[in-house]
């Protein structure tokens, strides 16, 4: 077999391995989203990401309670398809605004974390505002009698 054929075969094998790794990582992502959704069916979940040019990429999942406190944070950091979600315990129990300030203050090697967390928080805030808008458009369910139904004694 000629050298170029071997190189082409090797390239195809690496591509297949990379595709398999990507599939496994996406399966892990969906599993983590499902697990967090089932653990806390109420409240809000946001997902954010940050890509590093030469640094590692970050994906953040943030779960907030209906009262606005942070319940759980999971981070996936890495340069390869072998990265997995890990708990991020800093800020658990904080109000969402406090947690957002903490995320925005991250610098240096944690800057990617801060960007991913900020995007996840923004996603939660957008979902909250959409629900508030939807609730304000719904008619009131309380009973308001018409003037004809009221009786005077």
Sheet having the most strands: 4 strands, antiparallel
Radius of gyration: 24 Å
Order of helices and strands: HEEEEHH
Strand order within the widest beta sheet: 1-2-3-4
User: What structural class do you assign from the helix and strand content?
Assistant: alpha+beta
The portion of residues assigned to helices is 40-55%
Q: Residue ranges: pLDDT <50 for 5 or more in a row?
A: 148-153
Nearest-integer average pLDDT: 85
Q: What overall form do the CA principal axes indicate?
A: elongated
- β-sheet strand percentage: 15-25%
**N-to-C CA distance:** 105 Å
Number of helices: 3
Number of strands: 4
Q: Any overview of this molecule?
A:
With 153 residues, the chain is of the alpha+beta class. Helix content is 48%, strand content 18%. The chain contains three helices and four strands, in the order H-E-E-E-E-H-H. It has a four-stranded antiparallel sheet. It is elongated and about 75 Å long. Residues 148-153 have low confidence and may be disordered.
Task: Map the helices and strands.
Blueprint (H helix, E strand, L loop, with lengths): L2 H37 L4 E7 L6 E8 L5 E9 L6 E3 L8 H9 L6 H27 L16
Antiparallel strand pairs: 1-2, 2-3, 3-4
Helix pairs in contact: 2-3
Quick rundown:
This protein is of the alpha+beta class. The protein has helices at 3-39, 96-104, 111-137, and strands at residues 44-50, 57-64, 70-78, 85-87. α2 (96-104) runs antiparallel to α3 (111-137).
């Amino acid at each position: 077999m000629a050298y170029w054929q071997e190189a082409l075969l090797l390239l195809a094998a690496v591509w297949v391995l990379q595709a398999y790794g990507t599939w496994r990582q996406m399966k892990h992502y969906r599993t983590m989203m499902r697990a967090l959704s089932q653990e806390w069916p109420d409240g809000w979940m946001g997902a954010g990401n940050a890509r590093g040019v030469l640094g590692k990429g970050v994906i953040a999942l943030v779960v907030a309670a209906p009262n606005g406190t942070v319940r759980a944070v999971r981070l996936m950091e890495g340069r390869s398809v072998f990265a997995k979600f890990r708990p991020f315990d800093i800020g658990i129990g904080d109000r969402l605004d406090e947690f957002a300030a903490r995320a925005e203050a991250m610098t240096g090697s944690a800057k990617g974390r801060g960007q991913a967390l900020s995007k996840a928080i923004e996603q939660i805030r957008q979902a909250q505002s959409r629900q508030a808008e939807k609730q304000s458009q719904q008619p009131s369910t309380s009973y308001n009698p018409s003037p004809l139904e009221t009786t005077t004694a």
